[in-house]
Amino acid sequence: MTESSAPSSALLTDRYELTMLDAALLDGTYDRECVFEAFTRRLPAGRRYGILAGTGRLLELIDRFRFGDDELEYLRDNRVVRQETLDWLADYRFSGTIRGYREGEVFFPGSPFLIVDAPFAEGVILETLILSVFNYDSAVASAAARMVTAAGGRPIAEMGSRRASERSAVAAARAAYVAGFSATSNLEAGRTWGVPTMGTAAHAFTLLHDSEEDAFRAQVAAMGPGTTLLVDTFDVEKAIETAVRVAGPGLGAIRLDSGDLPNLVRRVRDQLDRLGATETRITVTNDLDEFTIAALSSSPVDSYGVGTSVVTGSGSPASGMVYKLVAHRERDGDGEWVAVAKKSDGKPSIGGRKHPVRRLDSDGRAVAEVVHIVEAGGTPDDTGRDLLVPLITDGELHREHLGAEGAKRAREHREAAMRELPDQAFRLGRGDPVLPTIFA
Amino acid sequence: MTESSAPSSALLTDRYELTMLDAALLDGTYDRECVFEAFTRRLPAGRRYGILAGTGRLLELIDRFRFGDDELEYLRDNRVVRQETLDWLADYRFSGTIRGYREGEVFFPGSPFLIVDAPFAEGVILETLILSVFNYDSAVASAAARMVTAAGGRPIAEMGSRRASERSAVAAARAAYVAGFSATSNLEAGRTWGVPTMGTAAHAFTLLHDSEEDAFRAQVAAMGPGTTLLVDTFDVEKAIETAVRVAGPGLGAIRLDSGDLPNLVRRVRDQLDRLGATETRITVTNDLDEFTIAALSSSPVDSYGVGTSVVTGSGSPASGMVYKLVAHRERDGDGEWVAVAKKSDGKPSIGGRKHPVRRLDSDGRAVAEVVHIVEAGGTPDDTGRDLLVPLITDGELHREHLGAEGAKRAREHREAAMRELPDQAFRLGRGDPVLPTIFA
Predict the structure, then answer these.
(1) Residue A27: CATH number of its domain
(2) Which segments of B275-423 does DSSP mark as H helices, in order?
(3) CATH value at residue B240
(4) What is the pLDDT of residues B106-122, one digit of tens each?
(5) Does A188 fall in a domain?
(6) Which residues of A273-299 are buried (b: 16+ CB within 10 A; e: fewer)?
(7) What span, in angstroms and rounded, lies between the C-alpha atoms of B285 and B159?
(8) Backbone φ, ψ for residue B360 (5° rounding)
(9) CA distance B360 to chain A (A)
(10) Is residue A360 part of a domain?
(11) Which of A83, A222, A305, B380 has the fewest CB atoms within 10 Å, measured from its CB?
């Protein structure tokens, strides 16, 4: 279920979180009960909705957020915090409660997609980890969902590992899968998250051989005629002739990774059909994004492979999510709850504990994101779909969100949540968020 | 020196690399001696040079590129490759030779910054890992170097961990440091790579307290008056008055994270001076990039903190680097060397083993990137600065590139390499690569 090794995630943290803890331990405010909230102020320019991804990864990382000897030694040697704080960190284990949008859920500006109830000390030190995971994974999922729409039911594989740093690549493969991609090239994503993997050969394999025919024969010998042959190393037309001669008309697929795609795809389909390879599929992998995929919608393409654009969020590689303290008790234990928010220029926040619901019309179509400000907690009196599910309760992970099973559930939820959206959500052109966010 | 745990990196790999290996083992081409080369076809639009980063990370990842029981089990269960191939992978350890540009080196389109000499099987399966590391780390370093130039000697801290996925954040902190940033907020980058860390408090710390003054008192009590107080939670002018009253005129610094920066900075400087805090520094951290940093060049800012823009490569989050087979022997062992290259539409490559030098004029100023095509290897007869250094020789890592020491050396080399560039390299406006790449 989890990655094969489980190093501590505790130092994947901005230093200021520990120095705030250090000061709060000194003045006694460290255990004031707090509510932290994660949300985004805006969607990337022109996007109509976002897809939340990362929850399953985050929960496993929180489970490994422990300060062991190595972590404490680094903090001590570098005088990051005082000894009292090191002692507190040595015992740290998140004991609070986290609720949030289900992974795969649609979100909008202001959607409070994660709500953390914990003493200040326990909640504040998770900020960086929470934002790192959601900002990246949701950037990928939000872009990927648009590509899935553009593909109109044809399968898309994620193959951008080389365009993301090596561990982001795994997260990206998972996030794209949550958003509806059917497979990935990344083997670690297959192992850790159960994402189906795919891929057969690169140009290097053809170039290694004394002829393209030798390369195709070697590949078919190892993988059978149902394999996908890469046909654009030299001359596409000759390659297809060779491919069908070598593999027979039962050749599984050919892959195009360059060229003037709409025209080339049409010619290739005609050639394959003339050669009797009418069932041989065409997959294209040439610098695609949601727009070029849409431009191929009337071409006889059978599947797509997408690299750079999906792992970099198609122009928006970070989602702009923030994590804010929105309420705390005035004293430890029995003080009054106080809603708090930064007031300064340009980056306003809305204080107070939130409870979001998605308001649906009588046809089950989403019409608004309604964010109730609920002083004392509890579920608001609203018939909309409740958007919060428990993720961690009193320090215990809800395990259905974890591992391959969690990723699969997120993928299914994403499909259901997107079905609620009005049609204009799925236009690729620039527009406003498709639902208004209403603070009630 | 290395990360505290060392999981296998072997599955951070595209599936097609292993299926190519599978087919090559079957037809006997797997041990043809090969030369692979990594380069980029172009710089991001308008950039005049790139900074190579990631080498030290890559070498440690190659050292951990081993197929253990868990990795082999996954590959077996999912029928990725045949049993013979699993047996080969079980014994895999890279035994070839890798030379490359020194980490921190300047590069241009076509610069062959990594040259791998290995049997096909050993070299082909490193493709994804090599590209993941260099594409991301160099995207960050290339953007960061421009920010360092824009800052004109004022220190810049990297604080974008929350805008990159959690492990990319560590790589980004390291890459920015290589490119001349002075510190990072990321504690893991401090531990693993020796990057100095910084940071004191977020708005949450002020909001937790019953008053801003309480928060400032708590912070000064824990960290001393030399700390940096964040003054834009409510009203900047009142906050500064409070800050100097609480910490005294010896207050270390104040931080501004919002607002109309050039005007605000000037007003804040005047206010601090009036209060006698003439030595208190001003650090600004408000959505900066190379352009907004440059716009602050005449403002009394003492240091910068940069987040999103540096960890996302300031608009170019992936460097577009590729890894290509450029030459191989026709048979195993004693065959002729053959230069190879993909010929198809739009993505041409230049075959053959390369040896790059940087041509300098009599003042030591760089004038061209000269890439010699050298059939048999060896150093070309050229008085330019030889750009290749050994990284791995016959499977042995050159350890001076590793760990904190390697990152520090890379940082120093980056400074020296940039000093060679002509002045127009440092213009922020869009332009062509500042050196021509000449294939000789």
Answers:
(1) 3.20.140.10
(2) 290-295, 308-311, 403-419
(3) 3.20.20.70
(4) 999 999 999 999 999 99
(5) no
(6) eebebeebbbbbbbebbbebbeebeeb
(7) 9
(8) -115, 150
(9) 33
(10) yes
(11) A83
Residue A5 has pLDDT above 60, yes or no: no
A234-282, pLDDT tens digit by residue? 999 999 999 999 999 999 999 999 888 899 999 999 999 999 999 999 9
Say how many CA atoms lie within 13 Å of B11 toward its Cβ.
27
Q: Which residues from A are below 8 Å from B27, CB to CB?
A: 214, 217-218, 221-222
Q: Which residues of A touch B24 (CB under 8 A)?
A: 205, 208, 218
The answer to whether residues B309 and B164 belong to one domain is yes
Interface test with B, best of A166, A197, A344, A353 (most B CBs within 10 A): A166
Q: Do A12 and B161 touch (CB under 8 A)?
A: yes
β partners of residue A358: A369, A385
Range of the domain at B202: 152-315
Q: Say how many domains are in chain A.
A: 2
> pLDDT digit string (tens) for A204-228?
999 999 999 999 999 999 999 999 9
Mean pLDDT of A130-150: 98
In a domain, B160, yes or no: yes
Reported as a single tens digit per residue, the pLDDT across B348-363 is 679 999 999 999 999 9
ipTM at complex level: 0.96
Global pTM reads 0.97
Q: Is the domain of B328 the same as that of B369?
A: yes
A366 and A283 in a single domain? The answer is no
Residues of A whose CB is below 8 A from B15: 185-187, 190, 197-199
Q: What is the pLDDT at residue A318?
A: 92
| Of B22, B124, B204, Cβ closest to residue A124 | B204
Considering the domain architecture, whether residues B373 and B428 belong to the same structural domain is answered as: yes
B351 and B276 in a common domain: no
Q: What three-state secondary structure class fits A198?
A: coil
Same domain, yes or no: B299 and B360? no
- Residue burial B368-400, b: 16+ Cβ < 10 Å; e: rest: bbbbbbeeeeeebeeebeebbbebbeeeebeee
Nearest C-alpha in A relative to B53: A165
- With cut-offs at 50, 70 and 90, classify the pLDDT of residue A345: low
Q: Which of B9, B162, B286 to mutate to test the interface with A (most CBs of A within 10 A)?
A: B162
Q: Measuring CA to CA, how many Å separate B196 from each of A73, A166, A188, B158, B185? A: 16, 24, 32, 10, 8
Mean pLDDT, residues A372-393: 90
In a domain, B238, yes or no: yes
